[in-house]
Amino acid sequence: MAKPPALAPLALTLGEPAGIGPDITIAAWLRRAELKLPPFYVIGDLAFLGERAEALGVKLPLADVRPEEAVQAFASALPVQDSCHGITARPGHPDDSSAPAALASIREAVANVRSGRASAVVTNPIAKSVLYRAGFTHPGHTEYLAELAACGGNPPLPVMMLWSPLLAVVPVTIHVSLREAIDMLSTELIVATGRIVAAELTRHFGLAHPRLVVTGLNPHAGEDGSLGTEDKTMIAAAIEVLRGEGIDARGPLPADTSFHEAARKTYDCALCMYHDQALIPIKTLAFDDAVNVTLGLPFIRTSPDHGTAFDIAGSGRANPASLIAALRLAWRMAKTRAPAIV
What we know:
alpha/beta, 13 helices
């Protein structure tokens, strides 16, 4: 009987070089055997990673590899695909080399996973303010990945899910102001988001019949229209459409009573109307091990759920737990497409 094909390694982006991305990457690789981590390689500047390891007081073997060589190298050295972008940024101090290096790493990771050289993209945190100063025009990582996925065509609708063993949430509107979020909300957007979430939970999380709850926009989900009509009309209409398509969706439910322990047991994912409505509960419950997952793309992408933490970069105090969770979840999702190599 023929041996099943091996699963390609995970492509890990460098993130903002001056942030904690390099630190947690190194910390995760050092714990690879203890935690039985899946094989990954980082796309970045080999010399820069060696310097960061030295600053951290870590003896770090590095291997300059092509993606196809990463699995073999992983046990004895941190595999690095050189991005050909030299980096001069110091911990906590981004400079003109930061944005080109971060964006090149993302582009190469996406290219690798789309060509089959990597099984999934795992992204380290970026600093949007640094990218904006360099001319970056996207609201965030999620939207940039959608453009890369489009390959010149119409970008897919990217859906940001924050996942943890305790809670999974999806903000229907993402990186916009609260005023803009209210203007952007529509029955159509909620329906499109719900469809993607239900399909991906089935495809990659093994849930045959995902249970979705949809939170209200207004206090008390509008109090039957007395505190705003959006819940009674726009959101309720979206839930009706989703249910008509066979998706187990209910609501709109008051957001302030949707995230306690008993409530969480009744659903698999909560669709929330705006960024903080979704992220505050999950970061309160699972700050160290929550994972950012982008749904609706033609490839798998996960990320830690925290930022660049410039204040502790290079200090050795950065916690790699969320990155480790992101690597594990990406591998788990990738296994739904191909057999594991171990």
